[in-house]
Amino acid sequence: MHLAIAHCTDEGGQASNDDFVGFCATEEIGCFVLADGTGGYRGGALAARTVVNEVLRRFRESPVHHCTCADWSLEIARDALLRARAAHPQMSEMNTTLATLLIDLNAGQACWGHLGDSRIYLFRNGRARLLTHDHSVVQAMLDAGYTREPIRGSAYRNALYASVGSEEMPPTALGAEPLVLAEGDVFLLCSDGFWDALDEYGMEATLQDAETPEAWVQVMVDMIRKEGGTVDDNFSALAVWVGKRISVTRILGAPAPSISAVSTAGARGE
Questions:
Q1: pLDDT of res. 269
Q2: Predicted TM-score (pTM) of this structure
Q3: Are 117 and 134 in contact (CB under 8 A)?
Q4: Is 191 helix (H, G, I), strand (E, B) or coil?
């Protein structure tokens, strides 16, 4: 098996992009990170960029060791955000979500952690499975049975009770146990602007027809722009395909592309 990667990040209808995507990977091991600077505060873009870069920097120090669990990424992100706040007192309330996916093909497993409402999906046998659990007020109300309002389209979708800058560490911040990988697995990290504009059915349908991760990401972006008109939020995604191309997930069997610095604003790869 090997890894193939594609990404996107877009301002949507906003004047600036507070999302940031990054990865550090070979064909067999990788750290994939997405952050969405929270709205309403100055410095969202700086917060997202800071935590992604720091998580990747720490991963590079000991990749194999850091693939065993994702808890370190949450702590590293929090420390990095606190330092950034101290260095920029005019942005002392800047904050961000975080989603980190770690894959080790040699060990045959993946693990993840997240804070906020940026999501990580697994696609297996052509079906989407949400690995993360939103740390949003609407999700908490749904869990408690206080509402049946769907999260997508909710006016309170962006109200979070946990993020990188909050003190609370929800029990759902980490995957319960490492996931045993299967040939043809596909992962998607995405910000709330992305999953709010494109539901799981659309993700699945576009994956079935995609020949490469780049093609899959591009067609999803095209759908978001077409269906949503002027999207009112930043939207970003990072796709990771595992193994050879098989019919249910349309995995490409060619060698993974070389990974170099990403030129798109708001994203970084190594």
A1: 57
A2: 0.88
A3: yes
A4: coil
